[in-house]
Amino acid sequence: MASKLRRVAGSAPARRRQLRASFDQRATREYRRYGGEPRRLLQRELRERFLALHLPRAPPVLLELGPGPGRFTPALLAARPGRLLAADLSRPILLAARRRLRRNPRAGRTAWLRAAGEHLPLRNGSVDVAVVIGNVVCMAAREGPAMLREIRRVTRPGALLVADFASPAASVEEFFHVAARRKLLLKVLRRPAFYLVDQALRSGYQPYRPERLSSWEFQYYTPDGARRALTRAGFRVEDVMAVGPLASHHDRVARVARRDRRAWGNLLRIEEQVGRRPGVGETGHGFIVAARRR
Fold first, then answer.
1. Its pTM surpasses 0.70
2. From CA 44, how far away is CA 34, in angstroms rounded?
3. What is the number of alpha carbons within 13 Å of residue 242 lying toward its C-beta?
């Protein structure tokens, strides 16, 4: 069975405490965020297909930073890593992931680490592949560059990094979509500046303001901005794909395609083709990047 959870010593900044407390309370609900609705299934499958395309077979050490409740961990275990290191801020989230994977025959070599991405309890150059999916870099907010540098520290030269990012345009579209479903869209559009829409688009930064429906401190990235941040941290970008530019925020498209296996497969393929075309990186459900440590 997996090793016991290990906690990194040291006091966390207020942002990490707030983030940890929030995820501690939503361990079960967080798993469902990529399930149920066809558009959510589409977003998850596109990420899994991107991982399958880029992950090497049997990497000795694979780091999953911010695994949450284990949505993408089975896809990583399918690559048959020699050892999987799963590091997250939230202990309840890690426990939920471990329970969910207890019947997976490949989960025995997983080490569960309670740690911040900016302070990983790992040796220099000890990781062969790093996967950071779920807007983890964006949730690090202004500490995102420090997190990328820390990932570079623990990875060996030539190691693969797969990470996803939320862009300002895609996130505002998602915000409008959620607001419409909660019957708040008219309220938001009447006061977009109050709800920080203008700030997110202008500066790419969203402060923590629960009273304004902003539950996270967040730093958005354009594809060019992510490329610059990765380059500064010591990575070379190899592939960038917008996640679901056609159907991420259009329930009917994904719902109709989901009725037929062939139609669903074709939608995934078309989404991948469109997602790699110039000019679409800020659309869909953000974008996902494959990069190499220099």
1. yes
2. 6
3. 29
